[in-house]
Amino acid sequence: MSSRIASRCVAPVALLACLAATAADDPIFLRISRDEAERPVSLDTAIVSYAEPAAVSRRDARRMPVQVDLVAAVHLGSRDYYETLDRLFRDYDAVLYELVAPPKARVPKPGRKPAGAIGAAQQGMTRMLGLEFQLDSIDYTAPNFVHADLSPREFDAAMAKRGESWWGIFARLMAEAAARADGGAATDVPPMTWGDMFSMVFGADADRQVRLRRLMAEQFSDMDVLTAAFGGERGSTLITDRNTAALDVLRGRIAAGDGRIAIFYGAAHMDDFDRRLRDDFGLQPRDAAWLEAWDLRDPAPAAARR
């Protein structure tokens, strides 16, 4: 995936300055940053700001143009990444967030340990990668957080209307990945060496975590497979219908007078949001910043970590 945003702004340094300085005419929302030797440095997510033309603000008697920020998320990240997002979210009138749950569902406060088999799997994943889960780290109880997603009943109804199933969703994803492979689509994913596999099995925790993060980051950064499988004209419940629900909430917040709004959704949703903010709301991308979600640098030597 080519980088069409030139910013090298990385959390938590000078984020607001970055937002004011970086053009975003043709945004992407997830990337791997590399050093001069093409070694992976970090997996980054974007915050892209959209604003309405001044003429629209005047027509609708708004003192300032509406600003909507698409805040791309990865659901596993570093503690610094989520702490930075929490700080940034305080400055919005509303943060519209994704969660397939009943409208009045309570999201646990960050720091509480999840229970049950799913919770155990989450904890195992965080230890394996040296990361944290989004729901465990972001403060969804903040007063400006607004649920903007389907309920489980609405999600099931949308899937039924489209004739979708979980198996069908998986099959679409696999078919798109196979089609890209058969078509010779370029990939930046390097082949795994015996040394990589040895280090992931027998290496120290820090070495193993970084190598696993690099492997997963290369897969996550290729968003074209997801957007081709679940976006576009055909659409899907996973992206299209959930985005529609979020944008309905966005219309309500703008009508209520909110001027600065964040849409905090997974990175796979952002291409569809980008198109619909332009086409349906008349908003245009203005500037962008990058946040470092995963550290992919080689770990410090063991002696330096003592």
How would you describe this structure to a colleague?
It is a single chain. The protein is built from 13 helices and nine strands. Helix 7 (166-182) packs across helix 10 (224-230). It has helices at 15-21, 54-59, 79-89, 116-129, 134-137, 152-162, 166-182, 194-202, 205-220, 224-230, 237-255, 270-281, 302-305; strands at 30-34, 40-51, 67-73, 76-77, 94-97, 132-133, 145-147, 260-266, 284-295. It is an alpha/beta fold and 306 residues long. Strands 1, 2, 3, 5, 7, 8 and 9 form a seven-stranded mixed beta sheet that branches. Strands 4-6 form a two-stranded antiparallel sheet. Helix content is 45%, strand content 18%. The chain has one domain. The relative contact order is 0.23.
- Mean pLDDT over the full residue set: 77
* Proportion in β-strands: 15-25%
Tally the helices: what do you get? 13
Instruction: Please tell me what the overall shape is.
Output: globular
Number of strands: 9
**N-C termini distance:** 38 Å
* Helix and strand sequence: HEEHEEHEHEHEHHHHHHEHEH
Q: Tell me roughly what share of residues is in helical segments.
A: 40-55%
Secondary-structure-based class equals alpha/beta
- Using only CA atoms, what is the Rg? 20 Å
| Main sheet summary | 7 strands, mixed
Q: Count the domains.
A: 1
**Uncertain runs with pLDDT below 50, 5 residues or more?**
1-14, 197-204
